[in-house]
Amino acid sequence: MKWTNDRSGNVDDRRGSGGGGGMLVGGGLGSLIIAAIVFFLGGDPSAILSSGNSGGAQTEQRDLTPEEMKVKEFVSMVTAENDQTWNKIFAENGMEYTPAKVVMFESVTQSGCGTAQAAMGPFYCPADQTVYMDMSFFKELEQRFGAQVTEFSIAYVMAHEIGHHVQTLLGTTQKVDQLRNNGQYSESEMNKVSVATELQADFYAGLWAKQTDNRENILEPGDIESAISAAEAVGDDNIQKRSQGYVNQEGFTHGSSAQRREWFMKGYNTGDIKQGDTFNALLK
């Protein structure tokens, strides 16, 4: 992935700042649910965040290494490119885009949705319109799930999470929450809604990649393939096979590896936000 000169002022780097502690995610969840939480790119995690206090584990204050500072610069660049691309897309459709914030942390930090832990993976919190990133997730993605982790696969993950921010700005997140809260849908039906929500975020990530490359020529050979590798690695079928040895489609919450690839590539190939209605496509 080619770097640009753009940098964002919306990145809050909490690594090395010490502190932490507070509430942690409790136990008692099934292995499949844990796998879904730990290893993916979800939307609003507040439903699974514990309200209990863990006793306040602390991290020591320290200086960031040169490598960590370079990662921060990269995250700032990707954030800026998301801001510019979505500003353009919203403006073309007669809307105004409000940028998401990005928090980089290690181990644990507080979010508007509760306590964020590294084990949860990157996530977006609608309550404070912020993406939370612990970069150790990508080591897990590579070592445990066989994904090809490159700079662009990290950019894809960020674009997916900012895709959830776009859903919040467009009112999609709120509509999904209403469906979840009104109790009219069964668990399997709500799982399909969840899949549609996640696949739309993949579509938005592909759309971002196309539009940003058109503007900045950021893509290099192999970049799209690395994004697809990351998306497929955390498909529900792949996670289920690794965690329980078999696939249960009714338990899907994020989409299969094939679906994730399909909708990311649809966003990339069309470059048109109007082509991303995963809900009508999946819920007929």
Structure, described:
There is one protein chain. With 284 residues, the protein is of the alpha/beta class. It has one domain. Helix content is 50%, strand content 11%. It contains ten helices and eight strands. The protein has helices spanning 31-38, 66-92, 137-143, 151-170, 172-182, 187-216, 223-233, 236-244, 257-270, 278-282, and strands at residues 11-13, 17-20, 58-61, 101-104, 108-111, 114-117, 123-125, 130-133. Strands 1-4-8-7 form a four-stranded mixed sheet, covered by helices on one side. Strands 2-3 form a two-stranded antiparallel ribbon. Strand 5 and strand 6 form a beta hairpin. The radius of gyration is 18 Å and the shape is globular. It starts with 10 loop residues before the first strand and ends with a helix.
